[in-house]
Amino acid sequence: MGKKNKNHPAKKSRKPKTGSHPGRLNDSSVPVSIGSFRAQKLLAPLTAGFVSWFEDSEGEPDEALACLQIAGVALGELLDATPMNNITSFAFGDVTAVLDSLGEELGEDVAVVAGALHLYLDFLFETDRWSGTVEDYEQVHALFGDEEISVPELPEIFIPEIPLAEELAAFEAMPLTAHVTALLAWLGAGRPVTSTGVLRLADIEQAAACVGVAAIGTRQRPATDQHAIPGLETPADDPSDGGPLKVRSMNDVPVLNELWAAMLEAGLLDVRSTKAVPGEVGRAWTEASDPVRLEAYRSLATGYLASLEEAVATTMMLGPSLWLMHKMVLTLGCGPTPLPVERIEMAGNSPKPGGDDDGFMLMAIAGTAMDHFRLMAELGLVRIDTHVTVPEHMVRSVEEVFAVDLWDDEGHFALGSRAEEAIGAQRTATHESDAPVYRLKVMLVGSKPPVWRRLLVPSDSRLDDLHRLIQMAFFWDDSHLHAFQKDGYRGTMYSCDPEGSGPWDDVHVHECGVVLSAVLGIEGDAIDYTYDFGDDWRHRVTLEKVLEANTNQLVPSCTAGRGMAPFEDAGGVWGWAEKIEAANDAQHPEHAQCRQWLGLEEGHVLDPKEFNKDEINEMLRILG
């Protein structure tokens, strides 16, 4: 009997949001309306309760916060469109009208908003916060339905026997291999890189052409779709209009960036301090013996597919269901009964919200999966005609990538050792290299009592990796801007938004291209990390000790710490201290209001010294 998984994406998606590609919640360009502002204010006192409820359903705190923020999109529209003065009850007709309106602007992305609103509705009802009637709840709940996705028992993958010459020819005919060959030829004896280890802006056009992408480097910040769901924005400078893609970094050309990373791990590429050169395997790419070349081709194809599936599995909210659909389609594509394209596309033909069919999430999953399969076909990983099939020479790669099931026997997406083995293999291999390990102390500046964390981090991590580590270690939800700064007020700044849409004037270095060892070289070096330029949470990151790499050591990890991490939007270190005082002092004039805002139950005393290392490490394990 096949597994069945309830269509509750955020509950099932236990992966925390790790940011980066294809966007982030905090990168929103959606105009702020009065309704949106009111919705966020009204959601604040419900946040702690929602996170707790979400965790009881085996979710993760940052996934809960992401879900709540997206639900706020619909709640803001409801407050703008109706005379509602609360967000704990709403009418069926109002919800359908708002989702229909959002559907016209967002297309199939409205499914993400609908899914988040569905979870918020269930939270209200199950925790007795729903202020409407039971009949009202049942009417609205019926809009979303409770469809289940049936997953058939998948057949075993059998790796075919292919003559060496035939398999070599198949790999050499792949666009993926052609792209790598073109990149290696373009690199020649080497190409200059910036101090952050990425190709110069002037070289992006030629490098992107090697992978079949028309792109030009520009310092101008591209516009985004003003109606996109936060985290699902599409650049306005889309090459679909016939013009080149305008990018500010090599990281903005996904195929080039992912191939670059795959080449590094396969030994095809070596990035030195001032230039990138072909690696040992890359230098013999076209001249090695047939068996050596075949192994290199297999390694590249498997590594690239693994990196694609890791990105899919960690996609916010839809990730687990998308990964499952990928596994189903690609596994069947390896055998005699591949899945017809028509069947996949039919799953995405659900009507708009308010219709008779309630498969909103299935619509988004099917549509997104087909987009992914088309991209795979462009690289030669799969073939698409009337069916989605896997070429014989790629069957081995599919079997290796999907060998470990990320779903447990109860239909939950697993975060334990099996998930680490399956989607963390590439990153783990890097972290178990000879790169030293940094012991960092991250102190929240001005906190009383002191709040700090001691972290073990690979020295070859990038600053965007460190950003995510700090977010997890302090339970921030990554809903505000952030930046790193080296050498004080006038020092170099690094951020994910280097063109200056934040509260700064100078152009920043992009954090995605900066390796940790480039800014923290010797023991005692430090860098500042500021999160939320309103509350101004400033963290001092100090390199305490440089340790030798140890394959038995869990990295990244938290080895020590002190103090409870403040709540988001608490007003900075002083505001947080005041809230602790008010929450624990029954005579304080803001006692009741503050306890409600913090979501504290009766009799619960807020302990500012509370610290749970194990809880942090459970979250950090997915980055290992």
From TrEMBL:
UniProt biased composition (Basic residues): 1-18
Quote the InterPro entries the UniProt record gives.
MM3350-like_sf, Plasmid_pRiA4b_Orf3-like
Top-rank lineage group of the source organism = Bacteria
Question: Which Pfam family, any one, appears in the UniProt record?
Answer: PRiA4_ORF3
Plasmid pRiA4b Orf3-like domain mapped to chain residues: 437-614
Enumerate the residue ranges of region (Disordered): 1-26, 222-247
**Protein name as it appears in the record:** Plasmid pRiA4b Orf3-like domain-containing protein
In the record, what lineage is assigned to the organism producing the protein? Bacteria, Bacillati, Actinomycetota, Actinomycetes, Micrococcales
